[in-house]
Amino acid sequence: MTDRGNEHPRARKEGLLIERLPDEVLVYDLDRKKAHCLNCSAALIWNHCDGNTSVQEIRRILEQQAQGKVHDDVVWLGLEQLYEARLIETMDVRPGVKGRFSRRELVKRIGVAVSLPLVASILAPTASAALSCEGRECALGCGPCICRGHRCRSN
C-alpha cells in the first residue's frame, strides 16, 4: 500500500493490439486471447496509467472531461477493472478501503455525474474455431452445416 495521492498505475504496453474508436477503445490481448472494450471513462483512465500520473491527477483529468466533480471511487473502480483485465501492470491498494465495491454500490453512494468506467471482456475463439462452421446454420439457409472445417456442401 502506498500513501494517499502517491499511487501511479502503469498500463501494459506489450502484447496488445489497440484500436481507438470515437467512443471506446478496443484492446486485444495477444497473450491471453482476450478482447476488451473500454468505454470512454475506462479508456481515459487507462490512457493516463503511465507510471507517472497519480490517481488524483487521473481524477482531475476525468473531471475536466466530464465538466463536473468526479469521486475518487470512480477512478478506483476503473483501475480495478483494468487490473482484472490485466491491462495495467501495477495496482496499488486503495487507501482506507477494505475489499472491493461494485458499480451498483458506487451509484448508490455517490450518484452518477460521469459515465462509470466499464471494461467488457470476451475470450476470442481460436483461429480453427473461428473458421469452422460446424453446428451453425448454413449461411444459405439450408439447415445445419456439417462441414467440419471446410466449405458447406450446399455451396
Description:
By secondary structure, this protein is an alpha+beta fold. It has 2 domains: 16-124; 131-155, no CATH class. The chain contains 5 helices and 4 strands. It has helices at 40-47, 55-66, 72-84, 103-110, 127-131, and strands spanning 16-20, 24-29, 34-39, 119-123. A 4-stranded antiparallel β-sheet has the order 1-2-3-4. Strand 2 (24-29) and strand 3 (34-39) form a beta hairpin. The protein is globular. The termini are far apart. The model is unreliable at 1-5 (pLDDT under 50).
Topology record:
Blueprint: E1 16-20, E2 24-29, E3 34-39, H1 40-47, H2 55-66, H3 72-84, H4 103-110, E4 119-123, H5 127-131
Count of separate DSSP helical elements: 5
Number of strands: 4
Overall shape: it is globular
Mean pLDDT rating:
75
Note poorly predicted spans. 1-5
Give, in spatial order, the strands making up the sheet with the most strands. Answer: 1-2-3-4
Rg on CA atoms, Å: 20 Å
Can you give the helix content as a percent range?
Answer: 25-40%
Q: Please summarize the sheet with the most strands.
A: 4 strands, antiparallel
Q: Give the H and E element order.
A: EEEHHHHEH
Q: Give the CA-CA distance, first to last residue.
A: 61 Å
Our estimate of the beta-strand percent is 5-15%
Number of domains: 2
SS-based class: alpha+beta
